[in-house]
Structure formats: C-alpha cells, structure tokens
UniProtKB/TrEMBL annotation:
Residues 256-309 are annotated as: Disordered. Residues 260-273 have a biased composition (Low complexity). Residues 287-296 have a biased composition (Pro residues). Residues 32-74 form the TadE-like domain. InterPro entries: TadE-like_dom. It holds the Pfam family TadE. Coiled coil: none annotated. It comes from Acidithiobacillus sulfuriphilus. This is Pilus assembly protein TadE.
C-alpha cells in the first residue's frame, strides 16, 4: 500500500513492521524489564501491606489488653484477690478480640476462645505481698460466704494500726496491683509463617549459645482449636482499691518481686554525692549569694529631693 505525501507530491512507501522494529529496538526490551521489576517488587509490597495490617491488629490487641487488665483487677478486688477470679475477669475483657459476629453463638465462641487465651496468660500479683498479709491480717468475715477467715480487712482503715515490717502502710496493703503478660497470635497470612520461622531461629540460636539477632518477643500459644500459633508477647498493669478482704492464696513474697540492679538508676545521685544532714546542734553552712544587692547610693539615687509624705 502506498500513500501520497511530501512537499513535491512524491510517492513514499508506508514503513513495514520490520522497519518499525528496526527503528525502535528497545521498546520490547523495556516492557520485559518492567515486568521483571514488578515481579521482584510485588512480593515485597505485598509483605509490607500484610505487615501493616498485622501491626494495626497488634495495636488493637494492646488497647484491648489494657481494658481486660482493668476488668481483671476489678474482679480481683471483689473476690479477695483470688487468682481464678482475676483470670475470669481477664477472659471477659479479652472476649471482643475473639468474637466475630453479632449473635449469641458468636459471643459464646468468642468467650470460649478468650478463656483459653486467658488460661495461658501469665498473671502476677505485685501488691499486696505475704509480708503485708502477715502484718495486717486478722479474723474477719468474708462477705460472699459469710464465714470468718483470716484476711486483710478493708473497712475502718483510718483506725487500724500500721506496721513497718512489710514496708507498707495499711492503706497500701489494700491496693491490688497486677501484671498480665498476654500473647497475641499472628493471624495475618504469611506473617504468621514468618513469625514461626523467626521463633525457630531464635530457639536454635539460644540452644547454640549465640545471642539472638531478633528483638521480637515471640512465644507459642495454643488456640481454641488446639493448633499452635506464634504471637507477640505484651504486658499491662492495673491498680485498684480492694472491695473485699484480701486473702493469702496468691500473694507473692516480696523477695520474688525485687529485681537485682547492676548500678544506681540513671539520673540519680550516687552515694558520694549525698551529704549527711546536720545534727540539731550543728549550724548550717553559709552559702554565698550569687547576686549581691546593689550599693545603697544606687538604691537611694533620686530620692534626696523627694518630698516627705
């Protein structure tokens, strides 16, 4: 096929496909390179997107854990700081994380899964201690059962004696403080497989005595279906005043709560920086005034001719 063109009306043949490929030899190679680059970048982008979803779910679980810990400590204050009551309250607080539906069946399944998760959580009672129980416990009536038990009373605290044996005041001995360590499973596809691989790598390095290169606190957790999953360990604490007498079933020893310190805290003065307080008969040293007052002739300048009031 021929076309007419040109300034002089000459006849020029239409370029063929082979001629076009010869003129632009890089078009097909650039298209192939783009496909290869997309094939390389797509898995990384997909992994970043899934990681973002998993991070959002972890933040949601962290916020719900705070609420669940408050529910757990509230249950403990109403039932004498019993560990089982605290665990039941934690399960009620974790139920929204495992409920996927709006009917009663979904709620029952979510509560059952939350009970399994709460049963594997590590719950520590930080306050009161057994030493405080030994100082302030007495025979008192347990309201739920109506029986006389030995417990720390919670009424008329302003009239009860204090003791220094445990280092606590009677007001502090009726404060329930707990610490909950909970494992949130990784549920996003591919992310849970990566978590399992990282966990096994850390376990292998620990058995070989090699320091761990990953700072992610991964732990295995068993779900309600009996399958083992891997998740992120997170902690929360809560404090509330006791509303029932404190029993001694799960109270810890004070020595088990004390953590050894390698040195003084950052920002705190050392023993060499502390000066002893002066005795009553000893006078305090005089410190120089950094800004001495100006001389009298400067302070009284301009007041010589001022009329008397």
């Amino acid at each position: 096929m021929e076309v007419f063109g040109g300034a002089l009306g000459g006849i020029h043949p239409e370029p063929t496909a082979s001629a076009l490929r010869f003129r632009h030899p890089g078009r097909h190679s650039e298209a192939g390179a783009s496909a290869v680059e997309f094939a390389i970048a797509a898995p990384a982008l997909l992994l970043a997107l899934l990681g973002t979803f998993q991070t959002a779910l972890l933040y949601q679980a962290r916020a719900q854990l705070e609420v669940a810990t408050q529910e757990a400590v509230r249950a403990g204050t109403l039932h004498g700081a019993e560990l089982q009551s605290i665990r039941d309250g934690l399960a009620r607080g974790l139920t929204p994380l495992y409920t996927h539906g709006r009917d009663m069946t979904a709620l029952a399944k979510g509560y059952a899964a939350a009970q399994v998760a709460a049963g594997q959580a590590d719950i520590r009672i930080l306050n009161p201690t057994r030493e405080a129980f030994a100082d302030f416990a007495e025979q008192t009536r347990d309201p739920p059962q109506g029986q006389w038990v030995r417990a720390i009373p919670v009424d008329h605290l302003g009239y009860r004696p204090t003791s220094a044996g445990s280092g606590l005041h009677v007001q502090d001995a009726t404060l329930l403080k707990i610490q909950v360590t909970y494992v949130q499973p990784l549920i996003v596809p591919f992310i849970n497989q990566i978590g399992r691989g990282v966990y096994h790598i850390q376990e292998g390095l620990g058995q070989l005595g090699v320091p761990q290169f990953f700072g992610i606190p991964l732990r295995p957790v068993i779900g309600a279906d009996g399958q083992t999953r891997w998740g992120i360990s997170m902690q929360a604490e809560a404090l509330m005043r006791m509303q029932s007498p404190v029993l001694s079933d799960a109270l810890p020893q004070r020595a088990s709560l004390e953590q050894p310190q390698d040195g003084p805290d950052a920002g705190s003065p050392g023993d060499g920086d502390l000066q002893p307080m002066p005795t009553p008969g000893q006078t305090l040293p005089t410190m120089p005034d950094p800004e001495a007052p100006p001389p009298d002739h400067i302070c009284n300048a301009g007041t010589e001719n001022r009329p008397a009031p």
